[in-house]
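User: Quick sanity check before I run a bigger batch. Here is a single chain. Can you write out its predicted 3D structure?
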Amino acid sequence: MRSFRRKHALAARDALQATWSKANERVAVLSVLCRHAVDLEWIERNPVEDIAKLEGGEYEPWPSDMLLAFERACEELGQKTARAIYELGIGTGQRLGDCIAMQWSDFDGEYMAVVQEKTGVKIWIYCPSRLRTYLATLPKAGRHILSKTATEPLGKRAVQKAVEEVRDKIGARHGANRLVIHGWRYTAAVQLSDAGCSDAEIQAVTGHKTLEMVRKYRAQANQKKASKRAQLRREQKESET
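Assistant: Done. Predicted structure follows.
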């Protein structure tokens, strides 16, 4: 770490530029390590600080047909881990790391208590009936809902690999149809918007610090509905002439 320089972080980022999300994740991990090195007084400053993220597209909410395809594939593959993280992600609208960290003691039968890793804010999320029903079917093999041992959760990479297996099967891992785990968070927000929830209500579930992303979800949902209304009016007008 004493010899690690900013150019090394940039090289690590750029080596993964074909997969921009992985590149940005790599930079984030390096920054955490460098902050720790500063705390240990191995280095005086974090050389990764303020390195720009790569841009390569946006996370997309999963369309309903792909959600159903994912569920079917989980059953066919016997992928219980992938199905569990899917239900937690869709049901609570939380990030992957926060879902993996969920413990049985966080769930009181109605609400899931979450301290968001990114924001450090503790929120309580009401779990919809589908998620509550699903959780009731899971064995309590340890402290965590996704347990590796009695006291440890499954590792993030292990969970990602389980989901990758299912994404491969349904053709959602590569190319134009690529869909990612973080898209489940967007899916939850769009579904809430479609149900008529206010920005504040969506924010209460997702836990975003600002309403900027929430408004983005709503704009996407509203645009789709507006498109349908406009085209139906068009068809009606044409039928009258």
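The first helix runs from residue 6 to 14.

User: Great, the batch can go ahead then.
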